[in-house]
Specification:
This protein is an all-alpha fold. The chain contains 3 helices and no strands.
Length: 77
């Protein structure tokens, strides 16, 4: 995703400190974080599966309007 892991962990730590007394908010926040992580993981897995399927089917990249890099960029965004 292009984000330094230590920066992300630091931000999560700040959220924990600022809202440690609001248990309901923290539970909802971490549920949100877990859902986002699951969405990201599904996208990465699906992208890898698609690439493997295209390679095993001997997909002709010259027949595609988009380059593999453009397809990858679309999937990541």
């Amino acid at each position: 995703m292009g984000i330094d892991p230590s920066f992300g962990i630091g931000c999560l730590g700040k959220v924990n400190v600022m809202y440690e007394d609001d248990m309901e908010l923290m539970v909802k926040f971490y549920q949100f974080v877990a859902k986002e992580l699951m969405s990201w993981w599904i996208t990465i897995t699906a992208t890898e599966d698609l690439r493997k399927q295209l390679e095993s089917a001997n997909f002709d990249t010259d027949a595609s309007i988009l380059t593999p890099e453009q397809i990858q960029e679309i999937v990541e965004n």
